[in-house]
Specification:
Belongs to the bacterial glucokinase family. It comes from Sorangium cellulosum So0157-2. One of its GO terms (molecular function) is ATP binding. One of its GO terms (biological process) is glycolytic process. With 453 residues, the protein is α/β, with parallel strands linked by helices. It folds into 3 domains: 107 residues, no CATH class; 119 residues, ATPase, nucleotide binding domain (Nucleotidyltransferase, domain 5), CATH 3.30.420.40; 195 residues, Hexokinase, domain 1, CATH 3.40.367. The chain is 41% helix and 18% strand. The chain contains 15 helices and 16 strands. The strands form 4 sheets. Strands 11-16-15-12-13-14 form a 6-stranded mixed β-sheet, sandwiched between helices. Strand 7 and strand 8 form a beta hairpin. Helix 1 crosses helix 3 and helix 10 crosses helix 11. The radius of gyration is 32 Å and the shape is globular. The C terminus is likely disordered.
Length: 453
């Protein structure tokens, strides 16, 4: 107690001499006009590497000013003799503590990178450090449970301890026109300028979800590729194609320009569904009654498409057992159909899964021909990881059944990408390019925030 009183008395001497020197941040409670500081109050933060508590009044008197303050206190006639060494130590500690605190602040305010993959089922968001090498925060949200993307993004940014991002790259499941995207299977509208303003992010880029997925295919580890052919896709010096059935059907192309791949979006999933057999003709008629305006491949190759295939075959069955009906009514109906079909526990479900995979393989072969993707075809999405890998023979048989062009497709490698974050990887690659390239006059921009808001 006696030592503490001596320290407080010494600090009071220093504070009275330097009451006019207000702390720049205005956070220490000093007052102008020679009024005394709140001497004797201590900040409980530890000095960096010192193991001692730093005095709050000395936070502003660092470096040479701290030394001058100590010397001024030393010339006071009524100063207790034993207080000066303690004052010197505390002033020096305060200088080291203040310098360390500023260094940590400068490091922490380096803006992060926000990347995301926005789909009809899930929205995946991640924050990376400024270099894009280290993930700082990640989360997955159910898209349909939220009224807008901002309802997801704002709480995600606020709750994260990461620095506020300066760049955001978001893959969206839908066409983008004039920097505005409408999500095909969600009532969401995303505009780059509005997101930049509302999220307080200087640079926002919207990209097609299959574009970021395709870019991610160039950066995934070897272990995340499950080949369906003897050879793996050859990214370098060849065109590539990417297809993904999920909430909808997405397709994209990676065209080699002689130096690098150009990633281009398509809306090929909305092309006309072309039946290949008598059963598929009946399926088309069944779907045309549900969708009289247009029957596209997405009406078949999607989560809801699998459900429609089951309904098509179940309508041919005598009846659906009550146990099956109860299982379909519990939880995710399409997932239950997938499980029943793979286990061959109910014939309509098994036939639905088989035909789904066959049509999937046929459309993947169509895409390989359209893009002349001799380097390979990547198949993305949770459906591919579960159904295509389990029925790979059916998939490849339909992929190759192209008449006179079958020999050409026999040399095209095909692989399923098992990494669920492939879209996030692609968005991160684009974000790093934006960060390296700097300003883009055509991009919507705003003043970057100095700190997280």
């Amino acid at each position: 107690m006696r030592g503490r009183r001596l320290r407080e008395r010494a600090l009071r001497r220093v504070g009275e001499r330097w009451a006019g020197e207000r702390d720049e941040a205005g956070e220490r409670g000093q007052k102008r006009g020679g009024q005394p500081l709140h001497a004797g109050t201590f900040d409980r933060r530890r000095c960096a590497g010192q193991g001692r508590t730093a005095p709050r009044p000395l936070a502003a008197t660092t470096g040479a000013r701290a030394s001058a303050a100590v010397e001024a206190a030393g010339r006071s006639d009524d100063r207790p003799v034993r207080a000066r060494p303690m004052t010197v130590r505390l002033a020096a500690d305060a200088g080291r503590w203040q310098g360390a605190r500023v260094a940590r602040t400068k490091k922490s305010v380096a803006p992060s990178l926000l990347v995301g993959d926005i789909g009809g089922t899930n929205t995946r968001l991640a924050l990376y450090d400024a270099s894009g090498d280290r993930p700082l925060s990640e989360a997955v949200f159910r898209s349909r449970e939220h009224a807008s993307f901002e309802e997801i993004a704002l709480p995600f940014l606020v709750r994260s301890d990461a620095p506020h991002p300066a760049i955001a790259v978001l893959g969206v499941a839908g066409p983008i026109k004039d920097h505005v995207a409408a999500i095909t299977n969600l009532p969401w509208r995303l505009a780059e300028r509005e997101l930049s303003r509302r999220l307080k992010i200087a640079r926002v880029l919207l990209a097609n979800d299959l574009v970021v997925g395709a870019r991610g295919c160039l950066h995934i580890p070897r272990a995340s590729i499950a080949p369906l052919t003897e050879r793996r896709p050859r990214p370098k010096e060849s065109n590539l194609a990417v297809i993904a059935a999920g909430t909808g059907l997405g397709e994209a192309r990676l065209l080699w320009d002689g130096a690098r791949h150009l990633t281009l979006p398509t809306e090929g999933g909305h092309a006309d569904f072309a039946p290949r057999s008598a059963v598929e003709v009946e399926l088309w008629q069944f779907l045309a009654e549900r969708h009289p305006d247009h029957v596209s491949y997405e009406r078949v190759l999607s989560g809801d498409g699998l459900g429609a295939l089951f309904d098509f075959f179940a309508a041919r069955a005598a009846r659906v057992p009550r146990a099956i009906e109860r299982r379909l009514a519990e939880g995710d109906r399409n997932a239950a159909i997938s499980e029943l079909g793979l286990a061959r526990a109910f014939r309509p479900a098994a036939r639905a899964v088989d035909l789904f995979v066959e049509i999937y393989g046929a459309e993947a072969g169509n895409l390989a021909l359209r893009e002349l993707a001799l380097g390979g075809v990547f198949v993305l999405g949770n459906i591919a990881r579960n159904l295509v890998t389990a029925r790979r023979e059916l998939f490849m048989k339909s992929f190759l059944k192209k008449g006179r062009l079958t020999p050409l497709l026999e040399g095209v490698p095909v692989a399923v990408v098992t990494d669920p974050l492939v879209g996030v990887r692609g968005a991160l690659a684009l974000a790093r390019e934006l960060a390296a390239r700097g300003d883009d006059d055509d991009a919507p921009r705003r003043r970057a925030p100095s700190r997280r808001s």
